[in-house]
Amino acid sequence: MLDSSDPRWVDPDVVRAAQRGDTLALNEVLDRLTPYVERVCGPIALDSGSDAAQDTLIAVMRALPTLRDPVALVGWVRAIAVREAVRHARRDARHRGSSDDLLERVPAPGDPTLAADVRDVLERLTPEHRAVLVLRDLEGFDEAATAEVLNLPEGTIKSRLHRARGRFRKEWGS
Predict the structure, then answer these.
(1) Class of residue 49 by CB neighbours under 10 A (exposed 0-12, middle 13-18, buried 19+)
(2) Residue 146 contacts by C-beta under 8 Å, 6 or more apart in sequence?
(3) Is residue 38 within 8 Å of residue 49, measured between CB atoms?
(4) What is the pLDDT of residue 95?
(5) Which member of 28, 57, 110, 126 has the greatest number of CB atoms within 10 A?
(6) Which position has the higher pLDDT, 163 or 99?
(7) In the chain, what are the domains?
(8) SS3 assignment, position 98
(9) Is 45 helix (H, G, I), strand (E, B) or coil?
(10) What letter would DSSP give residue 125?
(11) pLDDT the model gives residue 160
């Protein structure tokens, strides 16, 4: 059973009212979605997670009238959030260098200055690998659902997931 803190609990009638321009309804929809959007964007976009979440909510606000089925709200928002988070992560990677460049700057294994935490390891993965890990391991999606959200073939998801998990394990152990 869903509780009122779950974004899927948004009443379809409230979504329809927001689609018709009801400002209070739109605020309720966005308030309900914000924690979920932040939870999806943060681990993918890292330092730009809040920017990606904000861009997601702006995109949702602007495109909400085009949503055909209010019951599909959360899935639709999830796809937008992942897209925005990956876009921000790619932009950040271009500004600081590629993931491989980042890996070369990481202290050697055994260096006492190296703090082994999840964020540090995630930062060394590509945005595409972070997106697959977030959807599969944090959101609990299966390969088919992950493939649908990322608009990729299931085989691509399986191979990215395998590479992402392997890279994560390798970097975590460093």
Answers:
(1) buried
(2) 132, 135, 136, 157, 161
(3) yes
(4) 73
(5) 57
(6) 163
(7) 1-96 (1.10.1740.10), 97-174 (1.10.10.10)
(8) coil
(9) helix
(10) S
(11) 92
